[in-house]
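Need FAD-binding domain-containing protein's 3D structure for a figure. Predict it.
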Amino acid sequence: MASPSHPLNVAVIGGGFAGLSLLIGLQKYSHINAHVYESGSKFSELGAGAVLGPNSQRAMKLIDPRIHEGFERRAAFDPEDADENGRYPWVTVSKGEEPDLGVRVVDYRHEIRGSTIHRAHFLEELVQLVEPHRAHFGQRLVKIQENGDDAPVTLYFRDGTTATADLVVGADGIHSVTRKHLLGEHPAASAFFTGAIIHRATVPLAAAEAKLGDVRNNFGIQCGKDGLVFGFPMAERSLYYLGITTFNNDPVPEDKWVLPVDVAKLRRTFANYGDYVRKQVALVPDDGSAMGWSIWEMPPAPTYYRGRVVLMGDAAHASTPFQGAGAGQAIEDALVLERLLGKYLDTTQKTIYRFSPSETIQLVFQAYDTVRRFRTQKVVTTSAEAGRVLSGNEPGATMEAADIRERRKDRLNWIWNCDQRQQVKDAFQIFEEAQFAAARREVGRGSKRASRL
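Structure prediction for FAD-binding domain-containing protein:
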C-alpha cells in the first residue's frame, strides 16, 4: 500500500478512451504509480465515428488540457454558423419516410460548435500523452485474485504472466472480465443484445458528395420504422462515415459481435424510405469492407466497485449509441476517479482523520460510485428510449413527426450541461463527510477514556 516512500500501484485494465484518459490524469501524481494493461499488441479502437459532446470536452480540459488540444486537432467541426442565439447545430433528426417525410423532429444546439471525430484519431492523440513505460501490451486478463485488505491484488493474463496492484480499475469494455469478477453470478454481470445492428461503412467524401450533393446541407439522422440512417464527414473531412441501424433483428450469439453485411438485404430494408436515404444506403460498398455491429447494452449494475476493484467506461455502463453520449461518460468517469485518487491517496496530505489505505480506497470507490452510477445508468436508459422512439418501437408512441418531436424535446440538455467541477466537489464532499464522522467518533472515544481516568 501507499506510503510516503512507496506510491500506490494502480492497474488499469484496457487501453481505450476510458483507460487512457484515466491513466493520463493519474500520471501527474507522484504518489500514484499507474500502469495500463492492454489485451492487443497496440492501442486500437474498433468502430469509426464518435461524438464527444460539450460535457466530454469540459472533462478533457479538467483531466489534462492536452487531451482537448488533441481532440481539436483531429475533430471535424460543423461548418454552419451559430444562430441568432449563439448556438451551433449538433444533432438533427428528420423523418426519412412517410408520414411527414423530410420533416425535422429533433434539432439540438449548443454554444460549443458541433463536431465528430474518428475514434482511431482521438485514440492516437491520447496515446501520445501516455508515458511509454506505463503501457503493457498482449495482456489479456483472465482472472483477478484479491488477497485480503493489506495484500496486493493479483492479475492473471492469458499468456501466463501475472501482475500485482494495490487497486484495479476495470476499463475493459463491454466484454469486461473485471465486471464478471466484481458481480459474480449477478444477472447484470454481462451485456445483452438489444435487437439492433448498426451497419458501418466509410467512403471517400468526394464519392459521397457525388451521389448526395454537399453533405453539410443534409447532415443528420433520418429516422423511420425500424431504421435509422446517418452520415457525417470525418478524418479532417476526407471520409464520409455511414451508420445504418436496423431494429428487431434475430438474436445474436454473444461471440458474434461483428457480423457480415448483406448489402442487398440492407437496400431492400430501406426501399420505402425517401430518395436521400436510399442514396445513402446505396453508398454501402458490397466488397466486404462494410461491417455489421450488433448493439449490446449493460444492465444496471447494483454497484461499480467491490473490494479493491472498480469499473469505469463501457465495463460499467455500456450504452446504445442513440444519444451519442456513451464515450463521453467514460471521460467523465476518468475525471472523477483520478481526482479522488489523486487527493485522498496522498499520504502526505494533512487531514482531520487518517483512514488506513484499504479504508481510503473503499471510501474513494464509494464516493465515485455515488456520484457516477446514477448519471451513467440514466444515460444508458434514456439512450435506449431514444432508439425506440425514433424507430417506432416505444410503447404508445407513433411515427408522427409531432409525437416524436415532443418526446425528444430538450432531452440532451441534462447530459451536455452537467457541471463537471461540481461532480468532483460532490465526490469530495462524500469522502470528507466520512472523514468528519470518523474524527467525531475518535474524539468521542477519547472523551470516554478520559472520563474513566
